[in-house]
Amino acid sequence: MHPSNVLILPGWQNSGPDHWQSRWERSHGYTRVEQHDWMRPLRGDWIARLEDVVLSLDGPAVLVAHSLGCHAVAAWAAHSGNTHRVKAALLVAPPDVARDDVSQMLPGWAKPVAGRLPFRCVLFASSNDPFCDLPRARGFAEAWGADCIEAGAHGHLNAESGLGDWPQAHAQLLGLMRL
Q1: How far apart are CA 99 and CA 80, in angstroms?
Q2: What is the reported pLDDT for 64?
Q3: Residue in 92, 83, 150, 72 with CA at minimum distance from that of residue 117
Q4: In the sheet that 61-66 helps form, which strands lie side by side, from edge to edge?
Q5: Does the N terminus or the C terminus of the chain have fewer Cβ atoms within 10 A?
């Protein structure tokens, strides 16, 4: 698989330079799916952008989603006729978008898409994520048909978590790419 077919899907506000997604993009040549508006994410816009990028690839994609990017993957998969073009997905720290405080920050995303994703998935969850408790993260994994890996107490599994290049998750990604 060509590294540019690994699609990085950041969440709300994008992923900064010290985020593991940005580090992987720089180190491995993965492709970030740029959104039109990182600060006011519209579900339809994010789904359409993912569809455009998936269709532009020569060969299958592997998705690497963080936070709201996980919900974008689920929403895209529920509406796209092109899910066969995705080999697998690594989903990390989906927020509980139905929770009052989160839904106020992310209007339009308050109803999470449930339903098994039609490709292999692994979901990483933190035991102290401020945006989603562990039982809810396990529920997302079950609903989406993902294997759930509990990453310990690392907050939102972002740059502030101090994960660096996060070799544990990258090993999972490499495994998904080999399937």
Answers
A1: 26
A2: 98
A3: 83
A4: 31-32, 6-9, 61-66, 86-92, 120-125, 147-150
A5: C
Task: State how far the Cα of 156 lies from the Cα of 140, in Å rounded to an integer.
Answer: 15
What's the CATH code of the domain at 163?
A: 3.40.50.1820
What is residue 114's predicted lDDT score, i.e. its pLDDT? 85
Structure tokens at 128: 């102290």
Q: Does residue 82 surpass a pLDDT of 80?
A: yes
How far, rounded to the nearest angstrom, does the alpha carbon of residue 139 sit from its chain's CA centroid?
16
Residue positions counted in the chain: 179
Total domains, the chain? 1
Single pTM value for the model: 0.97
**DSSP label at 159?**
G
